């Protein structure tokens, strides 16, 4: 940093960006609620509903790449504020859509809200020293709780006023926040460094993406964030279809998943600072494998041909057990989301927007593809639990790949009779994916005692 910010300025920046991101995330997931009413009005299939829910996630994911670059270049204050004002206009215009194609077009504009994540990451990281960035970004990332705000509050607004008025209320609140952010937020401490730095081409800004580690982080984020967004969108529809709940009850139960999957990201940031991101990722993937396996089990009748006749028994996930399992799943996903983003400011302090934008984009693409896949699987298989079957395959693959890569690195270290690491996430990545001097941003250091 070119200047040392005061604690007051740090907390001001963190508080404003977190609150703004919470509102943006609430808007980004609005179709989890109003999409159900739109589906009833237009007579949509589950595949069509899944596409409508997922379309904003696609825009939010792709826009993160460009918004991250703009934030690196111009700073987060103006980029964040203008983004909120633009999104608010798109949400308001959505209320004039009357056909399914028009809804999809409007959903593309609503999705700009999802790009707020990388803008806030780059803006927030600029205010904090590396030893505190994990915790700060964990607090900022807790803005994912915006999906719980939508799941809890939007059903009551929709029942009282209709989906159009609900969207207009969202647009008004977001527009006001955009104005407040521009007025109240301060220019970040890296602004002078950006102004003095030689302007880089798009290719130069994207240069770190040649490193395989960036795409490894993206794979992890595809599950911990992409699947989180997908479930936040899909759960109300799932609960109505499987357990026969009304939309208000389904929304409140879905909020019980999204709250821990958001707020405990703060804990994930602290744990990543304290114990290392690799350990947190192991916790996340192991617990997620167990939870998704149990949730993927459909109601089943068993018949055992015994000596004195058939013995019959059944197995199914009750509503109470479903709530517990999704709560646990959301908790560990939140830890993993913070652990992934702990790495980026450390490896790439001057490329947080570009690298974080790509990682966030891949995670967001997961949030786009998975709801669509859930709807297709429902229509093809007729089994509601097929959504969790798909999630189980993804997280089991991620865990196996991560474990293999770490063990391979450790064997190379043992052969060389040394232990080296530049972050606890993966021992000695330079042994397999060497970086040029131009792109290696941090020196190798001895691993912390806890790791």
TrEMBL record:
Pfam families: MFS_1. Residues 10-410 form the Major facilitator superfamily (MFS) profile domain. GO terms for molecular function: nitrate transmembrane transporter activity. The keyword Transmembrane applies. It comes from Marinobacter excellens LAMA 842. This is Nitrate/nitrite transporter. It comes from the Bacteria. Keywords: Membrane, Nitrate assimilation, Transmembrane, Transmembrane helix. It is found in: Membrane. The keyword Ligase does not apply. PANTHER family: HIGH-AFFINITY NITRATE TRANSPORTER 2.3. One of its GO terms (cellular component) is membrane. One of its GO terms (biological process) is nitrate assimilation. Belongs to the major facilitator superfamily. Nitrate/nitrite porter (TC 2.A.1.8) family. The chain crosses the membrane at residues 12-36, 48-67, 79-97, 103-125, 137-161, 167-185, 214-235, 247-268, 280-297, 317-340, 352-377, 383-402. Its main location: membrane. It is a multi-pass membrane protein.
């Amino acid at each position: 940093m070119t200047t040392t910010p005061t604690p007051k300025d740090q907390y001001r920046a963190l508080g404003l960006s977190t609150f703004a991101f919470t509102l943006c995330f609430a808007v980004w997931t609005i179709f989890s609620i109003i999409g159900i009413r739109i589906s009833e009005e237009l007579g949509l299939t589950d595949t069509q509903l899944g596409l409508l829910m997922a379309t904003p996630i696609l825009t939010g994911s792709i826009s993160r790449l460009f918004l991250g670059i703009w934030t690196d270049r111009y700073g987060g204050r103006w980029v964040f504020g203008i983004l909120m004002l633009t999104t608010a206009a798109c949400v308001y215009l959505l209320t004039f859509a009357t056909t399914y194609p028009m809804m999809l077009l409007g959903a593309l504009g609503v999705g700009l809200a999802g790009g707020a994540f990388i803008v806030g990451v780059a803006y927030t990281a600029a205010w904090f020293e590396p030893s505190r960035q994990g915790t700060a970004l964990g607090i900022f990332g807790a803005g994912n709780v915006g999906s719980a705000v939508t799941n809890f509050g939007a059903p009551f607004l929709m029942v009282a006023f209709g989906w159009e008025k609900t969207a207009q209320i969202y647009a008004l609140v977001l527009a006001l926040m955009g104005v407040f952010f521009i007025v109240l937020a301060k220019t970040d401490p890296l602004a002078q460094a950006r102004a003095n730095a030689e302007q880089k081409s798009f290719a130069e800004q994207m240069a770190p993406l040649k490193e395989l580690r960036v795409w490894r982080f993206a794979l992890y984020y595809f599950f911990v964030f992409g699947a989180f967004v997908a479930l936040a969108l899909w759960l109300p529809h799932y609960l109505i279809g499987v357990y026969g709940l009304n939309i208000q009850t389904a929304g409140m139960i879905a909020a019980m998943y999204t709250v821990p999957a958001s707020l405990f990201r703060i804990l994930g940031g602290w744990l990543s600072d304290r114990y290392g991101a690799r350990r947190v990722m192991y916790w996340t993937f192991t617990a997620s494998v167990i939870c998704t396996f149990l949730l993927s089990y459909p109601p089943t009748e068993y018949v055992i041909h015994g000596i004195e006749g058939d013995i019959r028994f059944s197995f199914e996930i009750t509503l109470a057990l479903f709530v517990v399992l999704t709560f646990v799943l959301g908790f560990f996903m939140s830890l993993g989301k913070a652990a992934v983003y702990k790495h980026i400011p450390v490896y790439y302090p001057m490329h947080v927007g570009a690298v974080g934008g790509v990682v966030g984009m891949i995670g967001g693409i997961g949030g786009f593809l998975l709801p669509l896949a859930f709807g297709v699987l429902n229509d093809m298989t007729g089994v509601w639990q097929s959504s969790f079957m798909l999630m189980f395959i993804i997280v089991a693959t991620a865990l196996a790949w991560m474990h293999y890569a770490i063990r391979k690195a450790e064997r190379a270290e043992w052969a060389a009779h040394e232990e080296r690491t530049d972050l606890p996430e993966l021992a000695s990545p330079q042994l397999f994916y060497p970086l040029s001097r131009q792109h290696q941003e941090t020196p190798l250091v001895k691993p912390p005692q806890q790791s």
